[in-house]
Amino acid sequence: MVSLIMLGIIWVYARRGSQLPSLKNKIFHGCLLVTFSAVLTNLLSTTMVSQYNNFPMWLTWIVTTIYFILTPLMGLTYFCYTVSVIYIDLEKARKLIIAGTVPGILYVLLVFSNSYNKHIFDITAAEGYMLGDWVSLMFFFFYLYSLASVGVTLFNRRRLEKEIYHILIVCPLLTMLVIFVQQLLPYVMLSGSAATCALLIIYLHLQNKQISVDYLTNLPNRQELLDMIGLLLKRDAERSFVLLIVSLRSFRHINNTCGQQKGDLFLKEVAHFLSKIGPKGNVYRFSGDEFALLFYKENLDDARKCVGEIQKRMQRPWQADEYRFMLSAAMGLISHSGEAETVENIINSIEYAVAQAKLGKGGKICYCDKEMLQKLERKRRIIQILEEQLEHPSFEMYYQPIYSIEVDRFLYAESLMRIVDSPIGPIYPSEFIPIAEETGLIVELTYIILDKVCKFAGKLRELSSEIEAVHVNFSALQFSQPDLADRVFDIIERNQTPPEMIKIEFTESTLAESPQVVADFAMKMLDRGIMMGLDDFGTGYSNIATVIHIPFGTVKLDKSLVEAAMDSENSAMAVRNLSQIFKALGMKVIAEGVETEDQKQLVTEFGVDQIQGFYYAKPMPKEEVLQFILGRK
Transmembrane stretches, by residue range (predicted)? Predict the structure, then answer.
């Protein structure tokens, strides 16, 4: 009875655990079922044969026959489970399992023949229950499968983790020992207890090694989803399925308003709703406020119908206790149609689709179609190319001369990274710079760029050019590095570059994100003679009050300000006043993006000090810009 209770507990928790339909999980549940049935029939048979006059003879005979069948089959199911744990190759595992069932089938046939020959047991009204001369076959087959399990484990010991190896070895040996004791004490029922203890050890250490259920929503978690997708791809890569991610928008506002506990109640409500309308058993907690719905038995139309129900529900308020909120959701949907893909690619694709959906308003949904997958694949290739550039920097540096109005010469140049030759052709900065910033690769790339610029500055000195400084752009991510100043000083000193020949520029967004960090860095640079410049002023991230507290040498007016000044007298007046304010603060003002004579005339009237743009010079490779600069001496 104790064994039955323990098996019941294991069964309940196993059902709440991983529901991944893998061979290992299926066989484990089969082990539970066979063991539970064997223990139950053992109890029933023992009771019936001890009181055979109180039960119909045919019923006692059937229950006892089932007991004799199931007891050795506990060993068979354990053997199958051992094979499923050891062999990842499903085809190989299935062949071994099929071979292993042959003795079991033979034994079952022998048990069925007992009704005619009475070689295993017999029950009569006169003499009651009697064991036959073949009864030892039950123990023989049990030992056979236990030894087979040990043999398979020993054969594969080098492939197994130490803990798994020990469990797969100890469990059958422990079970055989207990069964041997039962043979010595036939009136003590130990077979069920032995199998139950083995299953308990397996469950605690193998089956339940990873938590697969989200504690809050009681849904399968992200890892369970990844395992399920991996299983679908492994079983049948050509099989189609649909993955839908539902991401709640601005959910942090709910937590901030009514507290996290109430926020959890809303999440539970959403989870309950999705579980009702989504594919049964395949709704997952993907992340904090995101849920995943996996449709692999249904089709794309079912997924679209589910999307419609979600959008319809989001038009009504959600309530948790006394709080009512309107929720919106961004949704990404990807349909796997049998193309060769990995779990990582699928997850990256769906997360990209969700990110694109979030760029829209309210409950926008983004279908990850072939065009989007192509864009994502191109992004992956660009990331790979950028990573390769860190190992072997082959990218080119272009330089755009900056014209000084006061001396009527080019005294400065801005450095610009270019990838003109790659396996996917030229990649423009507007495409690879955001990707480099998103991935963090921009940090190390900037150090390489600074090193290349220092070498270019050395070449300018060697040729006695009039260029006084070269501008280098720093990303906002650069300022997250604790050793930024030291790395910059080290690169400049290693190249023996005069500090005044390097001017570090960063955008307004950087200043808005980390004003104090930027200010501290600027002071360290100023102490070493390295000037700082503010790039793209006018894009709306900072204000003059912030700018005046940092020792900038230059402020570069964004081309949008120049274009606005051409279209509006009010804008022109504002840009003129900005220029005068910055000049009064001791800064040089640069107008960038100047492309026409009219624009050049306008910014000259504003009193800017320098002009950068196609009107005077385009960005050029190193050799070409050297010819351009030296030819104008």
Answer: 27-46, 58-84, 96-114, 134-155, 164-181
